[in-house]
Amino acid sequence: MRRYHVTTFGCQMNQHDSERMKGMLESLGYSETDSRDDADVILFNTCSIREAADNRLVAHLGHAKRLKSERPDRIVGVGGCWAQSVKDEVFARFPFVDVAFGPGQVHKLAEFLTSDSLTAQGFFEFEGFTGHLPAKRARDFQAWVQISIGCNCVCSYCIVPSTRGREVSRPPGELVCEVERLAADGVREVTLLGQNVNSYGRDLRGDERASFAELLARLDAIDGIERIRYTSPHPKDMREDVIRAHAELPSLCEHIHLPLQSGSTAVLKRMRRTYTRERYLDRVAMIREHVPDCALTTDIIVGFPGETEADFEQTISVAEEVGYDGAFTFIFSPRRGTEAATLRDQVPHPVKVERLERLVEVIQRRARERAQRFVGRSLEVLIEGPSRTDATRLRGRSRHNKVVNFAGLGSSGDMVEVEITSATSQTLAGTESLLARAAH
Ligand code: SAH
Ligand code: SF4
Ligand code: F3S
Using N-to-C axis directions, what is the helix angle for 172-184 and 212-220, rounded to 10°? Predict the structure, then answer.
């Protein structure tokens, strides 16, 4: 039996594509191994979003190079955004790589492995979505669904438009079929993926045309799907119909990830985000009006070129005012080929680090304060497995996407009621309600 090993970097889109790579390899008769040393096919699904991602990849590739020199019949493959951004250069820089492919070319991996090709090959023209490919899901009851690829925005710091190209939406009928199939296969929770999910459908024509809110309604109607999540919306496209859908559609979860990036209108302008601080806060007010209990999370970049202390304080004040349930915070990283990499007034590294620390302190304090609203309540939790810190307890997620560690009797994939007894900035703790269990 030939074995494969996949290392995945980057976002959920890459996790989704890696499940497709694994599914394809299994249908070709390969089996997964936990150790790269034992693998006949060594794959990397790469990310290029920040410099740190590139550096980590180089260290991993060094390991693959050693393994390849020990046994030259092994295959080393590199897919994803970094591969797409360097294209055929990958073979000159890393001569031990046999196959390289971009995010729109995952299916070529199977073609390469079943051909007798002895020469290295690269595949970088977008040809299609990976949704129809067989998948090996990490959990039976949860699935990713890719609704669009690419991005039509021009955020000046971001490499994604150059690695994943223009936005292309999948027709709604095809997505409904895919989610019906997943439901029939035992999936209870789906997460819709796109770089900018709420501009979904604008490129579709005729009968296929549908807005993101319409797509949500059609997916909500599918029997067996109890939770729908999505990531990420862009604040400029966040419309009232989608916000209302959170209040109206039973399966659409009470959580919105709304990337802020900066709280300073001047910085937002140079980022080419096309919204102001006020417009962003207006969206937040609309969310809180329609769905008062909605969890809000965000992405923030500190140290964008030209960010002054006053600009940064504007970001801190949005973080204080909104009170996010959680946030991903990043130090600005200049990326090749992006506009922001060429801007003057790059912020010195120690200043970036100091700002990140101050921001994280505010984010965590507000998240801890916000989380107290759950204490004393009973929340619906989808069990994902044992707790990471205490194997006698269970771990799951609430509809708000909060991790809940609790004492209980359920198994992975069960939906249970948990009485919340305490909350930190990151997690909730509690006990499964046996009364609710008896009533079921
Ligand atoms: N399309 C998604 C973004 C994907 S990248 C969206 O707009 O939500 C995820 C996050 O990485 C971005 O939201 C941004 O906060 C961060 N990011 C992107 N490029 C970056 C860069 N050059 N330096 C630092 N952080 C960056
Ligand atoms: Fe995902 Fe962007 Fe990284 Fe590509 S570059 S893997 S789209 S985060
Ligand atoms: Fe990047 Fe902005 Fe698109 S962060 S993926 S250009 S929405």
Answer: 30
The reported pLDDT for the residue numbered 51 is: 87
196 lines ligand 3 (CB under 6 A): yes
What would the pLDDT profile of 383-424 be if each residue is shown by its tens digit?
999 999 999 999 999 999 999 999 999 999 999 999 999 999
Task: Return the bridge partners of 416, or none.
Answer: 381
- State residue 438's pLDDT score: 61
- Domain boundary residue, one of 230, 253, 276: 253
198 and 163 together in one domain:
yes
How many independent structural domains does the chain possess? 4
Does residue 206 share a domain with residue 274? no
Please give the average per-residue pLDDT across 94-104, as a whole number: 93
Atom 1 in ligand 3: residue holding the nearest Cα:
158
Counting ligand 3 atoms within 8 A of each CB, the residue from 49, 50, 85, 155 with the most, and so the one to mutate, is 155
State pLDDT tens for residues 242-253: 999 999 999 999
Distance 286 CA to ligand 1 centre (A): 24
Counting runs of H as helices and runs of E as strands, what totals does the chain give? Answer: 14, 19
Verify that 361 and 432 share a domain, yes or no.
no
Q: Can you tell me which atom of ligand 2 is nearest the CA of 81?
A: 4
Q: Which atom of ligand 2 is nearest to the CA of 49?
A: 5
Q: How far is the CA of 259 from the centre of ligand 1 (A)?
A: 9
Tally Cβ neighbours within 10 Å of residue 39.
22
Q: 299: Cβ below 6 Å to ligand 1?
A: yes
Indicate yes or no: pTM above 0.85: yes
**Is 48 touching ligand 3 by the criterion CB < 6 Å?**
no
Do 7 and 115 belong together in one domain? yes
For 357, counting Cβ atoms within 10 Å of its Cβ (0-12 exposed, 13-18 middle, 19+ buried), the class is exposed
pLDDT of 440 over the 90 cut: no
In this predicted model, what pLDDT tens digit does every residue of 144-171 receive, in sequence order?
999 999 999 999 999 999 888 899 999 9
Tell which residue, 7, 78, 79, has the closest CA to residue 37.
Answer: 7
The answer to whether 90 and 122 are in contact (CB under 8 A) is yes
Domain boundary among 344, 373, 402: 373
Ligand at shortest distance from the CA of 15: 2
Say if 417 falls within a structural domain. Answer: yes
Mean pLDDT of 63-73: 96
What number does the ligand 1 atom closest to the CA of 328 have? Answer: 15
pLDDT of residue 418: 97
Report whether residue 161 contacts ligand 3, using a CB cutoff of 6 Å: yes
Q: Which domain holds residue 42?
A: 3-123
